[in-house]
Amino acid sequence: MKTALITGITGQDGSFLAEFLLDRGYKVFGLARRESWMRANNASHLADRITVLFGDMSEGIDIATALQEAKPDEIYNLASQSRPGESWARAPETLMINGMGAIRLFEAVRHAFPKARVYHASSSEMFGGAKTIPQSEETPFHPANPYAAAKVYAHHMVRICRESYGLFISSGILFNHESERRPLHFVTQKIAYGAACAALGITNSLDLNERGQPIVSGGRLALGNLDIARDWGHAIDFVRAMWLMLQHEKPDDFVVGTGKLHTLRDLCRAAYGRVGLNWEDHVVSDPGLVRPLETGQTLADPSKARKILGWEPTISFEEMVGKMVDTQIERLEPQIRR
Ligand code: NAP
After folding, report:
1. What confidence tens digit (pLDDT) does each residue in 76-123 have?
2. Atom 42 of ligand 1 has which residue's CA nearest to it?
3. One domain, residues 143 and 200
4. Which GO BP terms, alphabetically (predicted)?
5. Fewer beta carbons below 10 Å: N end or C end of the chain?
């Protein structure tokens, strides 16, 4: 039986990956911050099937102890301050977790478990304002926010540790992937939530946005720049790519994305369309919500992952958005019955 350690087990990807590995007979350990594990989280339903180790990526001793406890064959480093927008306000903390946390982990692996295989979560945000579309493993990085800059640092450290110490560390340059488990502060989930509210006739939502106001107010969902275009896939497909990287004979970097570009308008159309509504009657663009420096058009060229790993996405954009809207309706329905 193989053993895996997942950092960021309470997150979207961590929880899907844990399910994926359990289905394949792995013994799964997860690193989680104590206070996060104590409240309901994405992996709560797995509590009796996994071993949770408490720790923080900003503490080297926590990482080293987790490795000693788990003695993993495979390590998936998913823990991160994962909100690019939020990273403007929390730049030092973002670097501490996403950059320093990663190198602490790599160092601990080098000293204690040099034979372990490590997956590291890089991000398409590293391409930022890249001039080349689509982006592949060869496209130069041009990070446009503190989150992306910290990810670039860790990404380079992956290669340096590979080349200097011969460690098996692979980076997944993953493009946006969403799911029913995305937190409400991500724009994709806000749109799914907005569509669900509209379908249920909720004009002033109980859930609040970053500004402490109802996400849906006066029957309207306020968003920033609607022309933003991204390559969005479903997280279930993307955790499979992580695992495939560690089954490959040698460590490497792989771009993972659907290769299809959609704008926020497309996302709104799909979400409100799911419940038979016209998004333009329910969504407004608010200039106050536009980021200081917006990441440009990120579109994956996943040919290398297709060719070498045999990876293909299986869940379409429309299916993904549909699942998200349906889940929000299920979540909100009890509220309107009260
Ligand atoms: P997520 O849902 O936000 O999960 C992030 C995880 O990191 C959570 O479990 C969080 O735990 C944990 N974490 C944050 N700070 C920590 C700390 N100081 N110590 C220990 N754990 C900490 O993110 P995700 O969507 O699953 O993404 C997984 C990884 O892929 C991240 O590294 C993200 O940056 C990267 N990525 C994601 C996407 C995407 O579209 N989803 C795209 C490219 C790359 P708490 O519950 O305690 O907050």
Report:
1. 999 999 999 899 999 999 999 999 999 999 999 999 999 999 999 999
2. 176
3. no
4. 'de novo' GDP-L-fucose biosynthetic process
5. C
